[in-house]
Sequence to fold (803 residues):
Amino acid sequence: MTPTLALNYYLYTSTAPPNLSRKRAAEPRANQGAYPPRFPKWVRKAAKPPMKSTTLIEQHSSSLKQALHDHVQSGSMEDALWVFEKMNQSDAYNWNIVIRGFTDNGLFREAIEFYQRMEFEGVGADNYTFPFVIKACGGSLSLAEVRRVHGKLFKVGLVSDVYICNSLCAVYAKLGCIEDAEKVFEEMPVKDLVSWNSMIGGYVAVGDGWSAVVSFQEMLVVGIMPDRFSMIGVLNACAIEGLLQTGKEIHCQVMKCVVESDVMVQTSLIDMYHKCGRLDYAERLFDKISQKNVVVWNAMIHGYALNASPVESFSCLKTMQETDKLRPDAITMINLLPSCTQVGALMEGKSIHGYAIRHGFLPHIVLETALIELYGACSRVKFAERIFGQLAQKNLISWNTMISAYVHNGRNWEALELFQDLVSKPLDPDPITISSILPAYSEVASLGQRKQIHGYISKLEHHSNTFILNSTVYMYAKCGHLGTSQEIFDRMIYRDVSSWNTIIMAYAIHGFGRRSTRLFSEMVEKGIQPNESTFVSLLTACSISGMVDEGWKYYASMKLEYGIDPGIEHYGCMIDLLGRTGNLDQAKTFIDEMPLLPTARIWGSLLTASRNNRNIELAEVAAENILSLEHDNTGCYVLLSNMYAEAGRWEDVKRIKFRMKQKGLEKTIGCSYLETKCKPYRFINHDKSHVESDTIYEVLDVILRKIGEDKYVHSITKFRPLDLMRKKQNSAEHHSVRLAISYGLISTKLRDPVLVRRNTRICEDCHNAAKKVSEMTKREIIVGDSKVFHHFRDGNCSCGDYW
DNA sequence: TTAGGGTTAG
Fold:
């Protein structure tokens, strides 16, 4: 019989099994795997224990009690039960010790079942029994059991016991039922320090930092002196709400009382300063701690990651190991991984993964989720999938992380499938799930499917959540329905800074920069404080709409008026602006002088600028830098190859193709999508699969004749004959975007715009043709490519011919 | 013999 089975055998039969093991019933939790284990029904339903003679036991009752204590304290629950069966079982004291033993050893289910056996045998539970039982109910996350025990308290007249009420407050809050905790607290005739601490901790547990701070202040008003637990609780509350000033005041109080040198309080202070964005305060405090433990080092590593200082995060790890001779634990790994994710440090992330395996930290759901995020961010979807597939337990965060990994890597169909899978599970999607999946809907789903998800969201508990509405606004903008975005935005009762950032960005990607800047002014007038993302939206608007002077003005005001330091995204927008005006040298100098390490996104901006200004040398520099950061950036290879082709450098085209083949990379097949009457249609170049293909081609031929593009004309004319032949093969005449526009013109209402979406950038020839078609047909044509939406009207494009 | 505790995923 295995130790766990033996333990249950004792629990229900009180008869010794033949091969009694002296081992512990179960090892303490090393990780968050499936624990405690489930037991077979036949063990649970074993017979009621027979009555035994207690004469001998009574003679040795004192030594038996000592033995019971010893076994419980050492976690040997099997032995404790063996002793218990020899004791006086009408004495609640003995039952309490066993229940406490189970609870302290994480065997919550067993604790509850043992209490039920106590009830069954008619032994009256007392004021000591219930705190242990309530704690066990909390441990097993059993709200129904807590309520049952709570009801019992009324019957036995213990509903006012301060210890029991404190336990109830803590457990209700832990299970997310803060109103129940508040009710118990309010009805307590006597409240002590622990009661207040339980409520402060309870508010923190449900993420309500403000109420926790108010509770703390009320506690001081009624004359109760805070202890270390109060300080830790209220500092957590300040961290949640970003209340730096209150946090500093608490720090002053800490300095005045005995808890000043308490390392736990100091860790909470450090964490609070990090979460309030004050690395400097956190560092100063950290340096003063003479005896640093792993937890305080972990808090520091986490703080650096939180404040976008990944290098410092890794330096911390080094010093912790070399100077303090401390061994990193699973939490160290969890705190380090976001730093790897931030800078795309795949090798370092893999080392951490290896370390975690070697040191037995896995399975660990938080650590594994952090690994999924890392691999997702580093485009290693297969690794992420493998970890996700092997998770012993999946929680909502792990599902959300895997969905985000798919979306981040453009694997939108897989993301949708996974989301559907999640919906069929008992887990309820939360605002993070919805905001993660909506970009996939905006990329690949049909309008019908998007309306379906919108309907699904409106039935969710969080349907009016600002976070979800912001994502919905962006989803409609990203799939070309800017009007719907504006309608949802207008109907929002509460708009936060992200709502404004979203709508500014929505107009930005559609090339309506003026509208974006007007919205920014409106936002400021309404007293909304812009943040870093506001300026990303605003600078994107200026960049896409070619508003160069305004761009520089906002870039300057960001720091001067709002005290916001430019981040990598802002620098990217400025390089786009410089590229637009043809200042390639300035753009390169800008990159060289940037205080941040250039990322692939930065080099990507330079590459776009080089392409649009036909500077192959600089494009090569940019591309090499991108490929040194992202070896499998297919788009980068393709763009460079197209530039060589346009310049007639066919040897270089061959060289790029060879490199791509060597790396197993394939060019993304360019597709154009059109939706009419909620039916999606997909076109590839020279596509003839559509049932109305003949009509589409006939209409296209007529249009091309009318706009003077019926003969092969290319933007670059200096080709050798052989090159011209190669070019002819790639003629834009029947490119997918033209086929989609042609079908759009004949299948939609006359006054409606034709909306086409592409998975890759629209080529220059089709861009020119679309301008002419809009002029000739007097129809608005909208083409959303992989970067921006082009609104073609009266022969002009909203992008100002730069994209 | 009872209650509350620092760092951990988007």
